[in-house]
Model the fold of this input.
Amino acid sequence: MHLVILGSAAGGGLPQWNCRCPICFLARQDSNRVRPRTQSSIAVSPDGERWLLVNASPDIRQQLFDNSALHPREGLRHSPIHAVLLTNGDVDHVAGLLTLREGQPFTLYGTAGILDSVNANRVFDVMAQGVVAREPIGLDAAFEPVPGLTVTLFSVPGKVPLWLEDETMEIGAETETTVGAMIEAGGRRLAYIPGCARVTEGLKRRIDGVDALLFDGTVLLDDDMIRAGVGTKTGWRMGHVPMTGEGGSIAALSDVVLGQRIFVHINNTNPVLVEGSAERALVEGEGWTVAHDGLSLSL
Ligand code: MLT
Ligand code: MN
Ligand code: ZN
Done:
């Protein structure tokens, strides 16, 4: 199985267009200190020929340009992307669907809970009916979006997308609106969980023994955004478990057997993004990799 991390940042990317926090500032000044990163997406293939895109970020056009495996290969119009899967309805995971217009056939997969929000918004009809099929997928049911690649979606603690929040919304609920994806090919297993509010015993059992875990690295501590002075929201309020501190993912996942542990969906305020920082050394010392764009694995 081939994996490319197309975008390793959370919503907003790095640098975020309107942000002058020290990390965004460094990302503009010195890419040796902070590598710029695009928004959250991965591409997976059983054979290097046919690809599944998981999440369609607002930066998708640049991401496809930067990765030659995803370029058109034959004729006048072609794409090696056979399918797109959504793990939630956040802007950083769905806005790129608008770039995937132009009459290219592929299949869009997601839970009914996620696809409903796409279906309800007519701007997404630029992916023309009869050209792009939309396939709702039940939880815990294996499907094969690309021949030779099996995917199973499972619920993780989360919340509805920011743009659908209302007074009834519940944080940390395990519903169809935030899912993880277990991706399997050639006997290898990859778990992709870019958004998760809490590490539960059920989640630990689910991912035990995978060859690679790609996990929510939005914040280092629950109050990263408040410490950085750029906002009032905690990680919990955004549906993201912190790496460290109370309930942190590093400690919670330390007794799970995992081939590789990789943080993705990293917010621009997270100090692990700074090369050579104490925070980077801390997470690496615990066996975790901080993803960057273009990081690829063959499992
Ligand atoms: C998140 O992961 O919390 C969202 O991407 C926030 C957003 O939509 O900006
Ligand atoms: Mn996000
Ligand atoms: Zn910033």
